[in-house]
Amino acid sequence: MLYATNFDPTTFTQTQVGSSASLTQGSGPSLLCDVGSAGSKLIASAKNWTVAEPAEIWAQYSVSLSSVSGGYVASLYFEGIGGNHRHLHIDFGANQITLRDPNYNNEGPLVSVPGLNSGSTFQFVVVDTSPRYRVFVNGTQVIDYTDSFAASTPSGYGFDCASQNNGTGSDAITDFSLYSADDCPTGWSCAEIGNPSPPGSVSVSGSTWTIQAGGGDIWGGSDQFRYVWQALSGSGSITAHVASQTNSSPWAKAGVMLRASTDPGSPDYQLLVTPGHGITVQYRATQGGAGASATTYSGAAPAYVGVGVSGSIFTAYTSTDGTTWSAVAGSSRTLTMGSAPLAGVAVTSHNTSALSTVTADSVTLSGSQPGGGSPPPPPPPPPPPPGCPSPWSCADIGSPTPAGNQTLSGGTWSIQAGGSDIQSTADHFRFIWQSFTGDGSVTAQVTSESASSPWAKAGVMLRATAGSTSAYYAVFITPGNGVDVQYRSATGAGTNAFHVAATT
Q1: C-alpha 245 chain-centroid distance
Q2: 228-274 pLDDT per residue, tens
Q3: Of the candidates 142, 222, 376, 413, which lies 20 to 30 Å from 438 by C-alpha distance?
């Protein structure tokens, strides 16, 4: 929610300390501070806004400099109801930023930020429930600090300018905007998961949500994204129409998610739209475990997406009209997320220097109990993916990209696989296997292999586990390097190999 933008400095309550500080009213909404001797200071403040509920409050502004020398500084602060406040203290002469306490003593980390100059943009974020302070310079986070004060709702802001060590300078505070990061939909919770950068926001207009988010990714062992969610009670589903998505990265992601908790490494399951890599089903099976891809299909925003859980079976759904839904082939996974998973809409920019803006509408939650009712359960999960008949098991090992699949027809397997290699200390490939006890063997005829790389590999393998770093022994056919015999003697060890001349 935008509380106010481009404040007119004539509305400020001004208190001047020191005879050589002066305030000049320029044209337009700017605050000009001129300081010419040690110890002089000017404070301009305003307390004409309040926060109705706990929220993330942030200010964004730029500074125009002239005639800066020595220890000239400028700072912005938020003040709590009880008078507690923190200054964002910017020393342009020393190219340093820190936080200062009410007595103007250094409180937070002292951070060097080379190149502070005219036009630098600052974001000062206060998470009033922590209390936690985050600082961004030109879109890059430089401070994330939690202090010792009890939490207090911010009730005002101010600017001050000062000269230390006989420095001089002039700055104009311009383009000042004050936000609450979340205009959260009624009945929903909104938060940033994993401390994404830059900070995002949520706004609502009718049935349309506009979500801005930063963050590195929803992937790996820990996620960074903005989330809007409700808790399910038992089985249920969430569906949405991702109407638009800006291309902050080909791997920016937006869609629907089921998640065990708001911990960045929580188990999760989601169907996500990307600008450049189709629509992907992803999941994390365990707390802090690696992300994995179940399947990917072509598409981009606008797109209808849905995920549901029935018991412990999680399934992704797609639709062309938002009314008739069908399960995404190969998407079902058996996962554990407790009795009340968090169902919501997730957005990440996959770019820690830029926001991705997503509009979503027709968000529908089924299976939660807001208002006392309990909607019908989601559609039943589909049968297991075709091409992996009992007693075989089929899976991507090590989260290869693109995701693989397989079909079986008349005793012939057709297998598609991505992945960087089966080599070194960890592997990325598609595996089809059975377990056996004691001595045994596996044989196969590789009748064809596409040349995605001279070192593409296809063949037979004995493997201790389905983990990516497992011990194994294998014989592979390659398109350009003959027959390759490889093994890893222990979990996480390097790979040994010897090569045989090309044969048929």
Answers
A1: 15
A2: 999 998 888 999 999 999 999 999 999 999 999 999 999 999 999 99
A3: 413
Query: What's the fold here for domain 189-372?
Result: Jelly Rolls (2.60.120)
**Range 48-59 burial, b when 16+ CB lie within 10 A, else e:** eeebeeebbbbb
Distance separating alpha carbons of residues 175 and 63, to the nearest angstrom: 9
List the helix and strand counts (H, then E) for the chain: 0, 38
2-180 and 189-372 have identical folds:
yes
The pTM (predicted TM-score) of the whole model is 0.51
For residue 156, the Cα-to-chain-centroid distance in whole angstroms is 30
Domain boundaries, the chain: 2-180, 189-372, 393-500
Q: What is the CA radius of gyration of the chain?
A: 28
State the CB neighbour count (10 A cutoff) for residue 415. Answer: 17
Fold of 2-180: Jelly Rolls (2.60.120)
Three-state DSSP class for 367?
Answer: coil
Cβ contacts of 182 within 8 Å, gap of 6 or more: 1, 55, 56, 190, 191, 201, 202
Query: Nearest 5°: phi and psi at 10?
Result: -70, -15
